[in-house]
User: Fold this.
Amino acid sequence: KGDRPEAFTGGARALAPKEGRRPEPAIPDGVTGQALGQVVWDELKTLSKENMKGVAAHIEAAYLFLDEDLDAALAHAETASRRAGRVASAREALGTVHYAREEWGDALRELRTATRLAGTSHLLPLMADCQRGLGRPEKALELGESREASRLGAESLVEMAIVLSGAHRDLGELDQSAAMLATPAQRIKPTDPAAGRLWFAYAEALAERGRPEAEEWYRRAASVGETGAPPVPPEEDGVFYDLEDFAPAEATV
Assistant:
């Protein structure tokens, strides 16, 4: 089992017959990895030139297939991770695909590894949501209170607030769930990329409490084209908020 320590399983794996290497999935036409950001390319410079280009193409393909073919996305992400296991972006891609497939344990493991390798915190919202998926909302709330969470940039912090609101809802704490989002929902600008997600989540939290004003927040979310689908948290952009801005409001909402 995946939760057993290495010392327990290592001997058995050493005696097991080794599987043949799986064929790598074909790179789609036009996919070269050039769509990836500079941060990813900087990480890939630790690889040989040939391997760097191949891994980059597989990472791009993994994200390309996220919305249309999760099996293909997984094949490309696994290939990237196998060829570049110490590259944070490869492990992040694999964790993101597992997250999209709702394979919470696998996703959490890969996202933790990516976070450790990169030394960043932007994946914490996904990790907290994985804890919710595993039925551990208390662990999600602990992540939200961690020192690492205080380093989140603007959009990732909004995503974390949404996840923590859901964790409160999982625990039956409906007042806290709505209050968690009250202040940021009022403050965020319609032009902010995270506005729709935040407003939709706030509407959901209010609806859970039977509050009629939920309809207004659903309308606001719809006005910016919100679908309710969670995006991948962005790389940090250097804009930092205070976690206190996203703490449960004292006033009745």
Q: What stands out?
A: The two ends are 45 Å apart (CA to CA). Residues 154-170 form the longest helix (17 residues). Residues 81 and 90 are 5 Å apart (CA to CA). Confidence is low (pLDDT under 50) at residues 1-18, 229-253.
